[in-house]
Amino acid sequence: MSGVWSDLSPSECPCGSGTSYAECCGRLHRGAAAETAEQLMRSRYAAFAVGDEAYLFRTWHPRTRPDSVTLPAGRTWTGLVVQRTDAGGPGDESGVVEFEAHYTFAGQPGIQHEVSTFERRRGVWVYVDARS
Hints:
Strand content: 35-45%
CATH topology: Nuclear Transport Factor 2, Chain: A
């Protein structure tokens, strides 16, 4: 499933779910817990798209997160394609999500490809790390 943030109505979620931001990733940004690793990954993508650095920091495993999170200026996130998930379901303790995050920077399109690892920490999904 993919979505293009710049082409969506202001109420549609940038993660491409086809639902409203308020019902989808917005509720996670406001404090609800993700049920799966993919849901957390989508909400983190949406956080990049809407500029929610605090959410990105909060959902990053303390073992691997930087001291602070600062989003790059001038990058506009334009779409998300989830390629695969391994585990990461409601009953799992870890999971992997491979995806492509599309963006524009300085008027040029780009794609960030990642295979991201997620773990449950105290019952809550967190992002651990990624490889390109």
